[in-house]
Design goal:
Rossmann fold; 25% strand; globular; 261 residues; alpha/beta; single chain
Length: 261
């Protein structure tokens, strides 16, 4: 197995099956409404299905579903898939919610487009990337998508609070698209930023969004209550009537997986 950043372990990935994480996952930075329109421009053959690996609560899948004949939305977390199917648009006839590890998923392609968010970081890259490549049509591409919250004046202070409370004993910041390219697992062809899109969160909602991550799952933290107090005190001066005015982007990187790994 290819060595990955120290926080990217199976044990840490299992946090996304915790009900507390699933229940607050929708509070994370949203994708811009224009994302679906941009992704559809990558579709090579309109009659072929689309694939999303690590779909979580299906934000991308549900946005694409009205425009495609079939989308296979794959995730290892049964609670995530249950929530995805129950959310608006989750019952679209074009969606197949599939519970499976990406490493053992039986790809039912060929797919005209494959997409994945940060969830791909948790997977076995040396297995999954060649598998995606073999499952794509000749003109199809893999698009990696990252939701990015816009910068604020309190980001530095928030990061220090997160570092003190994170369940990760070690953490390495890295770019997934760049790491995969360096390893020779795919060929990057381009990228773009979609957005910005404005969104709001109450302070409590923002705190809960932080717990919907691998590093801060409430059920696994030593002192989640103290973390919550620190974050609320930090954010209070920056909120208007308890509400934070935020904005976000989606960073897209397009490429073709190398089938030989």
């Amino acid at each position: 197995m290819i060595a990955k950043p120290p926080q990217m372990t199976a044990a840490n990935a299992s946090a996304f099956a915790l009900q507390s994480v699933v229940d607050t996952y929708h509070l994370r930075t949203p994708y811009p409404p224009a994302l679906a329109r941009v992704l559809l421009k990558f579709v090579a053959e309109t009659r072929s299905p689309i694939l999303e690996l690590g779909c979580g609560t299906g934000e991308i899948t549900r946005a694409l579903a009205p425009h495609v004949s079939r989308i296979d939305a794959v995730d290892i977390s049964a609670p995530m898939l249950k929530r995805a199917a129950a959310m608006p648009g989750g019952n679209a006839p074009s969606i197949r919610w599939i519970e499976s590890p990406a490493e053992t998923f039986e790809f039912d392609g060929p797919y005209t487009l494959a997409v994945s968010g940060d969830a791909l970081g948790w997977m076995d890259w040396g297995v999954v990337l060649p598998s995606i490549g073999r499952a794509l049509t000749p003109r199809a591409r893999l698009v990696l998508i990252t939701a990015v919250r816009g910068e604020t004046v309190w980001d530095g202070a928030l990061l220090e609070v997160i570092k003190r409370h994170s369940v990760y004993p070690e953490f390495e910041s890295y770019s997934l698209p760049e790491r995969l390219a360096t390893l020779g697992l795919w060929t990057v062809e381009g990228g773009r930023r979609v957005g910005p899109t404005r969104f709001t969160r109450t302070i409590d909602e923002f705190v809960e969004s932080l717990h919907a991550t691998g590093g801060l799952p409430r059920d696994r933290m030593a002192d989640a209550a103290s973390f919550d107090v620190e974050v609320r005190e930090l954010l209070a001066p920056h909120a208007q009537d308890g509400v934070l005015d935020l904005f976000g982007y989606a960073d897209l990187t397009c490429g073709r997986p190398n089938v030989d790994g």
